[in-house]
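User: Can you predict the 3D structure for this chain?
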Amino acid sequence: MKIIVSGRGYPEKRNIIVNEQYTYLDFRYKNIWLYINKIRQKLARANKVFIFWPFRFLMPADTQVIHLFNEVAQTRQRWIATFETELPRVLPVPGVPKLANPALKKALRLVAAPQCVAIVAMSEAARQIQLKLLEAFPDEASAIIPKMHKLHPPQPVLYDGPRDTPDKKLIFTFVGNEFYRKGGAEVVLAFSELAEEGVINADTVEVNITGDLNNRYNIAHGKYQDEAAFYSKIEQSLTRYNIFTHATSRPNSELIALFKRAHVGLLPSWQDTYGFSVLEMQACGCPVITSNVRALPEINPDAAGWTLACPLNAMFELTVASVEDKIALRRLMVAQLKAQVLAILADRASVLSRSQNALRRIETHHNPARFKESLDAIYALAR
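Assistant: Here is the predicted structure, written as structure tokens:
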């Protein structure tokens, strides 16, 4: 099968480019909108438009389907799109309500058109967000809803053999290049407070942290970003308490080895659309403590991990409308994280049971072979 894609980035590799028997043609630089966007952004500072419009004369005649990620297509060729939030993806225009944006209506017609044979939500959260969007566009909804599917990304199991119940030092692991968005500061605060209270020390707990401390911007905080003094406090805590080991980045092979060695993973994220690192940790038999934004509760149910319960908005996200909101949410996350760590220390057998359940859910819900079969069934709709 010959499939056109609009890039070979991480999302495409995790959701689309998954079958070694297929030929994937990268048309990123054969997309007319790539060049229109550059001109519009340079001359008019216009928002980027997430539309794939291929040069028709460059398309092989034997192409079976176009498969996009977070884009819609402007073409006579049959196409499919996988999305992580909603489709179409349209950036906000200052002073224009989202549903009144003419670019949204225009792009939504492309999704409703017969050339679009399927749209694939990566999670139930994404499916629900899409359905909510379509409530405002009943004409388009009648054409789009019947061709909407849900398909979680594939993930092979990476750990063989049973885990041992940790009887001495517990090893926790956090990974997040966008350190502050992924909840790295809350991890440091929670474990620092526990160390300060004398509850844990370097003989009982090890916390491995991988993340770029210079990645300070947190999209979830909007205009209420943290101040320099806060960042300084986090950095000082990492060096002050000998329970922490920090690296700005690690090769993927080293991360996988770290996940296999760790007892508990950490991702108390402020903002996430999915959480691929959670799948990788679970696939290594490492259960995870996560926040409850977006897809995280779906891929990290109670039997396989632990979840921090935070108030969410209609987009399954945290709302930070003031400095006070941010502080209150941070204290809630830190308090719950501390409580979860203490509960794990008191009941180490819970790590073993969740480790086994995490491995089982990866095999059941993210099996690569079954993912290929499900995707092939969707591709069959384009024939």
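The first strand starts at residue 2 and ends at 5. The first helix runs from residue 10 to 15.
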